[in-house]
């Protein structure tokens, strides 16, 4: 009897975790779409992958968008320390998402991407790991 109870508890925990994950993704989608559609002020879309790939360029873009002067001294300092002291070397890629979670993320990303393009923004990058 105890084994059945433990299995039932595990199943309930997994279902709750999935519901929480789906809720989080849904909130992300709503937040982005609502901000894009409801903002009266200009919106700058910063894509995480672009920030990681080209941090200095992205920072310049953000500063320019905000009307903040670019301090070349600080940019030079940032360039020297861009990797950080504590960056770990990763030998393997970890995929933490289940196929169901990937489908949920892909659907939300699709909706956000459509909204971006309808409003004249550049499309999001493709995410082959969500296919």
Automatic annotation (TrEMBL):
GO molecular function: sulfotransferase activity
Cross-referenced InterPro entries: P-loop_NTPase, Sialate-O-sulfotransferase, Sulfotransferase_dom
SUPFAM superfamilies: P-loop containing nucleoside triphosphate hydrolases
Residues in Sulfotransferase domain copies: 12-98
Record family assignment: Belongs to the WSCD family.
PANTHER family in alphabetical order: WSCD FAMILY MEMBER CG9164
Protein name, as recorded: Sulfotransferase domain-containing protein
Upper taxonomic lineage: Eukaryota, Metazoa, Ecdysozoa, Arthropoda, Crustacea
């Amino acid at each position: 009897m105890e084994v059945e109870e433990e299995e039932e508890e595990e199943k309930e925990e997994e279902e709750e975790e999935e519901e929480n994950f789906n809720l989080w993704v849904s909130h992300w989608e709503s937040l982005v779409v609502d901000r894009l559609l409801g903002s009266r002020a200009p919106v700058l879309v910063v894509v995480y992958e672009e920030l990681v790939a080209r941090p200095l360029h992205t920072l310049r873009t953000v500063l320019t968008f905000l009307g903040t002067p670019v301090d070349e001294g600080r940019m030079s300092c940032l360039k020297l320390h861009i990797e950080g002291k504590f960056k770990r070397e990763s030998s393997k890629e970890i995929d933490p998402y289940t196929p169901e979670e990937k489908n949920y993320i892909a659907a939300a990303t699709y909706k956000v991407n459509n909204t971006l393009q309808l409003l004249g923004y550049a499309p999001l990058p493709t995410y082959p790991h969500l296919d």
